[in-house]
């Protein structure tokens, strides 16, 4: 174990927890698991995080933030409508499996763990804010009309959650889900 500044050690622990979530799931985060993986003492974890629940929740939020940032980069040159739809369409590929498992586990654990519940709510709210921003940009450029970007974003998230569960069925490939979500957007697209 090498000496790191306080913020560097915090980030090392958080990065380790994030990787454990991705590799093994949220429930796999224990003080011993993180300490062993990061090659540090258990005491250092408790020095930086009040509880393991807090570490789990911060890791979940950090993974969500990374996903949103990556999505913003990937969608940078897309149309407003494509940005909106691709922000709510279920993920594809290896990341889809990882994130679907993570979100299903977070939803399940949120009934028992208040830290996870807060993280789930916070992450969902961040996703909602991001979609509202995309909708407002589309409205400003006359690519979309809506009376409430806020309400439309929540409807799209609800639809996305349903389609995410259906996306494992062969008939619900990305293009089919895209077409369904596009059909649900308000008219007057340019």
UniProtKB/TrEMBL annotation:
<feature type="domain" description="HTH tetR-type">
    <location>
        <begin position="7"/>
        <end position="67"/>
    </location>
</feature>
<keyword id="KW-0238">DNA-binding</keyword>
<feature type="DNA-binding region" description="H-T-H motif">
    <location>
        <begin position="30"/>
        <end position="49"/>
    </location>
</feature>
<protein>
    <submittedName>
        <fullName>TetR family transcriptional regulator</fullName>
    </submittedName>
</protein>
<dbReference type="InterPro" id="IPR001647">
    <property type="entry name" value="HTH_TetR"/>
</dbReference>
<dbReference type="GO" id="GO:0003677">
    <property type="term" value="F:DNA binding"/>
</dbReference>
<dbReference type="InterPro" id="IPR036271">
    <property type="entry name" value="Tet_transcr_reg_TetR-rel_C_sf"/>
</dbReference>
<dbReference type="Pfam" id="PF00440">
    <property type="entry name" value="TetR_N"/>
</dbReference>
<dbReference type="InterPro" id="IPR009057">
    <property type="entry name" value="Homeodomain-like_sf"/>
</dbReference>
